[in-house]
Amino acid sequence: MSGRTVVCLLAGGSATRMGSSENKVYLELGGEPMLAWSLRAFERSPLVDEVVLVVRDTDRARAAAIAGDLGLTKLRAIVDGGDTRHESEQAGLEAIADDIRSGAVTLVAIHDAARPFVRQALLERILVAAADVGGAVPAMPVDSEFLLRVEVDGSSELVDAATLRGMQTPQAFRAQELLDAYRAATLVGFHGVDTAESVERFSDLTVATVDGDADNTKVTFVEDMIVAEKRARSWSEEPGA
Q1: In the predicted structure, residue 18 carries a pLDDT above the cut 60
Q2: How far apart are CA 93 and CA 76, in angstroms?
Q3: Measuring CA to CA, which residue among 175, 210, 181, 206 is closest to residue 194?
Q4: pLDDT score for 226
Q5: Beta 165-167 vs 105-112: how paired, if at all?
Q6: What pLDDT score was predicted for residue 153?
Q7: DSSP the chain
Q8: Based on the structure, what is the number of domains in the chain?
Q9: What pTM was estimated for this model as a whole?
Q10: CATH number, position 224
Q11: d(CA 178, CA 127)
C-alpha cells in the first residue's frame, strides 16, 4: 500500500487510579518521562513516517519539551485531545484529515502512551497485517480458566477464558475508513472503548488479530509502575526492543 503511515499517540490521560495528580505519562520511568519511551519506539521504526501526539492542553508545553529533548524527526504535530478517548482519537485523525482524503496518508495506528514498551517486532506485525487486510489489533490470552459474565439484570454466565483475548495497542487501520468510522460514530454520539470497537460498528474493514506482547502492558496502577521501572532497567538488552 502506497502512502504514509502515521501513529496517533494518545497522551491525554491522568493518573487518578495511581493516586497522583500528575498525568502518568510524564512520570519518570528509567530516568526519563514515560512518554519518551513510546516516542522513541516510533521514531526508530522504518515503517512509521509521522507521529501525531495528542495531549491535554495544559500539557502541551511539557510534551513539546520532551519531544525537543529527543530530537525527533517524525513528530508532525502536537494537538489537544478531548474529554474522552474517542474525542482524543478523532482529534488526532482530524489533524491529518486532508492528507487522508488525498491518499497521502493510507495507514493510521493508534497507541496509548501509557504502554511504553513497544517492540519493533510487534509494531511490524500490526502494520503489515493492517496494510494487508484493512486493520489489525494485538491481543493476548486471558490469564484465567473461566470468567463470570454478569448482566445488568443480575443474571450470570460462566465464560471459557480460552475463547477470549485481552486487547492491546497499537491498533492500526486503513486511514480513510478509520476517519469515516470516527465521524460516523460522532454523529450518533457513540464512543467506543477502543479504536477497534468503533471500526467494528462503523466500517466494513476486516480486522486481523495478531499476537500481542506480554511486556506491552498498560501502566494504570502503582504496582504497574513498579513493574515498569524494573523492565526499563533491562529494556535495552531485550531482543527486538
Answers
A1: no
A2: 12
A3: 181
A4: 93
A5: unpaired
A6: 81
A7: --SEEEEEEEE----GGGT-SS-GGGSEETTEEHHHHHHHHHHH-TT--EEEEEE-GGGHHHHHHHHHHHT-SSEEEEEE--SSHHHHHHHHHHTTHHHHHHTSEEEEEEEETT-----HHHHHHHHHHHHHHEEEEEEEE-SSSEEEEE-TTS-EEEEEGGG-EEE-S-EEEEHHHHHHHHHHHHHTT---SSHHHHHHHH---EEEEEE--TT-----SHHHHHHHHHHHHHGGGSTT-
A8: 1
A9: 0.90
A10: 3.90.550.10
A11: 14
Confidence bin at 201 (pLDDT 50/70/90): very high
Please tell me which residue, 145 or 100, carries the higher pLDDT value.
100
Predicted local confidence at residue 106, as pLDDT: 98
Cell 500539557, residue?
59
State which residues form the domain around 97.
4-237
CA gap 5, 127 in Å, rounded: 9
Q: What pLDDT score was predicted for residue 135?
A: 98
- Of the chain, the end-to-end C-alpha distance in Å amounts to 26
The pLDDT of residue 73 is 97
- How many CB atoms sit inside 10 A of residue 210's CB? 18
Tell whether the model's pLDDT for residue 209 goes beyond 60: yes
Mean pLDDT of the chain: 91
pLDDT for the residue numbered 138: 97
Please report the pLDDT score of residue 12 as a whole number.
Answer: 87
The letter for the amino acid at 15 is A
